[in-house]
Amino acid sequence: MNVRRLAVALAAALALHVPGMTPSPSFTLLSANVGNLDALTGGPCADWPARGALCVAADEDEAAASLKARSPDVIALFEVLPTDGDASARRLLGAGYTMVCDGIGGYDCLGLNRERFEVITVATPPQPAACAGKADFAAVFSVDVLWDGVPLRFVVAHPYQAFTDEEDLCREAQLQQTFVELPLGDTVIVGDLNMDPDRMWWFFASPEVWHANVGRGRPFRTLDDGMILPDPTWLGALTLDHVLVRGLAGGCTTLPPLADRMDHRARWCSILR
Fold it and tell me: φ, ψ for residue 267 (rounded to 5)?
């Protein structure tokens, strides 16, 4: 636990005992890529776009039970079944959430507790020119809300999974959308960024967008502060799933995948004003 996170925890604890003090408003957030490795293994899901997404009923039931057990205030879901994204995401979220999905392929969705968040606007910018012909479902979108009456912006990001330098230009452009073009005021960035800033910067240029915008003296801080190498979230190898904030505080832990066949671990966060 780093010094800032310890200070937040102590302040919250003191607020329970000191007359006149109240705890800082907070909410819980769970982020999960609910897809699988069918894109590599060839089954049992149908061909693209279903392959690689949440396309097995048993997985959906298991993931829905995991979400219900934790009942987070905010749920970010990546790789829902795109041909049935709306219905798939709604079955996962259950009642009590306002749901919004990206405007590119409906592949990624955000659920917000209706009692705590009022959705004001949702915007999905066009894919960058560098993504033409290669990123049919990769998207970044923003959701402006009132959180207990106070403005807050979520940026939900799932940039292109690049394997070559040419493809990395697309991922870099979508990371630029994530960190520079879409944030406004107090912001939470949540996403499967398809990029590990600590392990991948040796091989690709796109992590430089992260390093220009995250860290001491920069606009955003990761809620993994204090960890030299955050827990891998993808196949025990790379940390691709991230939650970052501007103007807020908090911390995150890494959970097991929501269902056995999923290739990403989930993130569980508490975010404070």
Answer: -115, 135
